């Protein structure tokens, strides 16, 4: 795995994608090592803050050396990031985590499920899977609160996209599993990222249709590099590193085989 | 220029250590930092058997610092002996293992298992605020601290450092109790018990309700306590609590600390320890200080 670093990146561009959702492009050599499903830690400049904000990588351009970061403004740190303009410096720790296991898609019917701010890392995954051409089929189901279906147009370019919205303004009214059922979607392999209730639903749905599921988890983190043991998740078996039923989301994940997790 | 210090007969190339729990067993940060440059690596606390720790969320940021309630999750001393100590042995730095337990016997078991291991000193954690049994129960009462120190000292092959809690009325009294029972050194401060409430969700930010406060926010409290403790006892003091820069480290040394440790700041800057090492050398050069030991307790 590539060596982790804390570096200074430059903002290439930033725009509003939806209400409270920002699309940030930064120039950094961390892009060279990035894989779908990995994340970075971004440090606010506000001296009252200490910890990096773990944010997923939405996409990357290895030739240009850029990372695309799509995030929701959720507090003082991300509010600060949202004000960054072209040319501003950004302190970034990365690249972190292992990303999605792409080899599991080989010859399989793949379903990619995202919810809310869990949607962005799946765009990078969908693009990568499409360009690798390993999967026999790719379907995508994205869940949103309302008609602000950010990134949906770009998902649409990667294959068949289904949308679920809580208010029913676009696609299926309900959650992503409702949309899967409504459209009779079946799969061999599911990749998912989103809030915990959604991930639990995906795990159950996968068991129901006999698919393998790989879930990307989120948790409050401190170090981001596996030292502090802040961001653990419960595992079914005793974890090799911790020797208890806890795995570190930052370094052992953030993507886990659903069968290995106690959600 | 001399940056070497001595604690209970163990020499350290410089006073800069890592605070237990913020640096794993060094493996994760070896990717960022040349461990050979550090005075010592102080490991995450280890018990006689694996501990699962607390539920999540375990960490929360607060103004100028963070709260944590990891709950001393650890893989147990056997794994440390098989995996972590062989890794650390190859570096030219001192190794201090932080020891935790629920009962006196737990501590004694760990200390005995480590007796023939490549470990330079033992730091005894009687100050974790985030576990119900053990830990802090020994660290908030001078008599209990005296008794457990005495018992561990009987079994320990390496010199011991009792790590003290700031959550006490008189740090001097605690320092004196540790010294009287034969502790070779003391370290302080562990985290300060705190709480954060998420007002929108009407919930505690940390699953454990309370967590230990660390980071720059606690530095003035730590400096004061290091000053008080180092004036109360003759044994060496290792100072920690919110050290972010070399200037902070110098402050602790001037307050009376022989060694210092960088903790939560590792999360903010994985290179923080090395920057403190280099910054201390630069400060000494600028100020014409020939020996780091000359400025200890100079205020």
Structural notes for this entry:
The complex is a heterodimer of chains A (263) and B (299). Chain A has 263 residues and is an alpha/beta fold. Chain A has 6 helices and 16 strands. In chain A, the strands form 3 sheets. In chain A, strands 4-3-7-1-2-6-5 form a 7-stranded antiparallel beta sheet. Chain A has a 7-stranded mixed beta sheet with strand order 11-10-9-8-12-13-16, with helices on both faces. Chain A has 2 domains: 5-96, Translation factors (Elongation Factor Tu (Ef-tu), domain 3), CATH 2.40.30; 102-218, Rossmann fold (3-Layer(aba) Sandwich). Chain A is globular and about 50 Å long. Chain B has 299 residues and is an alpha/beta fold. Chain B has one domain (5-53, 72-195, 213-295): Alpha-Beta Barrel (TIM Barrel), CATH 3.20.20. An 8-stranded parallel beta sheet of chain B has the order 3-16-15-10-9-8-7-4. The chains are: A alpha/beta (263), B alpha/beta (299). The interface between A and B is large, with 33 and 39 residues.
Give the gist of this structure:
Chain A has helices at residues 76-81, 120-132, 152-156, 176-182, 196-209, 249-252; strands at residues 5-18, 21-27, 39-43, 53-56, 59-61, 66-72, 89-96, 109-115, 137-144, 160-165, 172-173, 189-193, 212-216, 232-234, 246-248, 255-257. With 263 residues, chain A is of the alpha/beta class.
